[in-house]
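Need residues for this backbone.
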């Protein structure tokens, strides 16, 4: 600012001198060129003073943004490489999953077969015990039926042989046995 003050004073003197002089056009041309030179020098000074810091700040800002862009580019390339690696290993992962699934299915199938075999054995044992039980029941019923038939046959034979006199003798013998037992008591 202190440097600009003499420059402004000089420009003011030139402008004042130009207005006071009523000389010819040639003298005006000299003052116009002098005025233009002062203006050009003032603008040059201001541009020389202000533009380098502006350009250096802008340059450093651009450099910083370039560095950030390069960093982002590297990060995106790394992510892209990681994704490509995962995608390329996806086929192997799928195949491993298939192998694992087949093994699990085989184990599950074997377990189901073992459970089915155990269930079949259990059903066979249960059926065998039911058959044995049904056989025992049938034999018991057969024996009871045979005994009933034997009793009926015996009753028919006894009725065929038994007449009134034999029946009276048997009843008298039974009554006599009852009396003897009664007297003992």
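Answer:
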């Amino acid at each position: 600012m202190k440097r600009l003050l003499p420059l402004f004073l000089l420009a003011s003197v030139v402008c004042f001198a130009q207005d006071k002089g009523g000389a010819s056009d040639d003298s005006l041309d000299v003052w116009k060129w002098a005025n233009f030179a002062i203006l050009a020098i003032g603008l040059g000074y201001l541009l020389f003073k202000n533009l380098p810091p502006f350009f250096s700040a802008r340059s450093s800002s651009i450099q910083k943004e370039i560095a950030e862009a390069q960093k982002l580019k590297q990060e995106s390339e790394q992510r892209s490489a990681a994704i490509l690696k995962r995608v390329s290993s996806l086929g192997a992962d799928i195949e491993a999953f298939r192998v694992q699934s087949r093994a699990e299915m085989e184990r599950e199938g074997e377990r189901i077969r073992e459970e089915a075999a155990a269930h079949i054995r259990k059903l066979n044992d249960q059926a065998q015990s039911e058959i044995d039980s049904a056989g025992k029941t049938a034999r018991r019923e057969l024996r009871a039926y045979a005994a009933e038939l034997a009793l009926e046959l015996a009753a028919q034979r006894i009725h065929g042989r038994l007449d009134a006199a034999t029946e009276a003798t048997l009843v008298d013998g039974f009554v006599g046995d009852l009396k003897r037992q009664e007297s003992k008591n």
